Amino acid sequence: MANHGLLIALISLSCFVAICNGNVLFSSLNRTLIVTVSPSPPGQVLKAGKDKITVTWSYNSSFPSGTDSDYKTVKILLCYALESQRDRPWRKTVDNLKKDKTCQHKIVSRPYSRSGNNTFTYTVMKDIPTASYFVRAYALDAHDIQLAYGQTTDALKEMNLFGIRGITGRHVSIDVASVCFSGFSVLSLFGFFFMEKRKAKSQLK
After folding, report:
1. CB of 135 closer than 8 Å to CB of 41
2. Claim: this prediction has a pTM higher than 0.85
């Protein structure tokens, strides 16, 4: 019996140390937050640096009162869908949130409120790459440790995804300038040959 009690104490201590080190497992979190976005997916494709989405989040009332007593902050993140993680280990989903690369783009952080009127309108940043995304919210404690989450898609079968089309870095003005310089180069080349030909003829006379 004493050994059994010691084993439980050791497991509890290990869990406590893991949490203190920030080694929180996503699979250990309750989905206590409801998160939605508008315009509503699926199929919505947003342009980086231009388009906007409005994120809304609230506490899931199906959980008992007091479950959120330690929630201090809500962090909203833009996360890569599984289809945009394939062959890209730098976006890989890992259960240990300290190593997880799913949600790399912060949308906003706000003090936690149980109110259902938590909204934020987000303009897609110019550096967001082309991919399929969903939105996830984490509830954090006073030490910024994840306690719970919510997201716009199901964890097992991804639905309600939306796309973002990133900026490629090419603009019409650059293309026009490139064509002009190419044309100028060709004309200069013909002019050079013409002048050389005239010079050769003058020397023969």
Report:
1. no
2. no
